[in-house]
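Structure tokens please, single chain.
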Amino acid sequence: MQTHTSTRRELLWFPNSCLGTCSLLKFLLAAIVLSGTTTITKAHSNEIEYPLSFTMQGNPLVRHISSTDPDVHVWDGVVWMYCSQDHPRQPGDLGDWDHMDGYHAFSSEDLVNWTDHGEIIHSRDLAWGREGWMFAPGAARKDGKYYLYYPHMENIFIWRIGVAVGDSPAGPFKDIGSPIQGITGIDPKIFIDDDGQAYIYNNTAQVARLKPNMVELAERPRPIDYAPPNVKTNKTQRFLEASFMHKYNGKYYYSYTNYKNKEHQGFYAIGDSPYGPFEWKGAFAPSPEGAQFHHSLVEFKGQWYCFYHINTSEELRNKLGLDWNGFRRIACFDRLYYNDDGTIKMLSYTRE
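Here you go.
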């Protein structure tokens, strides 16, 4: 297992939903900066040769590395999944996310036989931002080019969205050199409508059109009217993170996560435009094991699927023989079904 050590200034940081809404106490704590030496472990980078082929054995899907925040697309009859990675927490870290880094691309032609194409970009490949802090990605394809969007911490308190471009869905991807201007936040997700227009969605429930070059905004981000006021002010129903947009039978489905809900975390709304307004429909996904419901919804060969992640508990690690420690999320997927009226049936999680 490869490690490298660097001296850097580290941010004391709170979960995503706190950004902009933390109490004064949390704000003051978050402003504290520590100086020290941090050892960052790249999980299995020297122990596995890529591309790596593996077979689906039931959930969880990926078992050889952490595979967090799956962003999934179907291009030319192939399923492509892009994941961030959790790495072990180090002394002095405040949370479990400090060392998220190194995106991987996975592909399958049948959802049974998969290929991990290896690392497609890492924070060390960027000319901007801090080491680590590479959160949930979003990918897109347009005019023969492939785009990987990712949130990255540019400076203390400042999350920006970067873009890397490649000629293949398996990469390699090259960063454009600077983040997208005019938008901040995390969890970028790209939706391309039937007319070819691309939209970017992010935390905190905003949307904006992209220019045809896919690396610039065509307008200022606007808030999404996804629910009535009583939902937007409900602590266990309102938007917290993980915007996602998909289209089904001509309707636009905006979905998101409220990870404070103990029973259900996935919620959605239906509208007639990528901007909304949307009619809130409620929950469609239970709370996953030990993690927030960060999801992708895609259709493949006539069947809809929901990709998500769970945390690898000690029990699960022992069962799968994983030599892992700490907070390490891992990708799963299950079938998704709709009712005749277009509403989504409650998702059922399966295991082996």
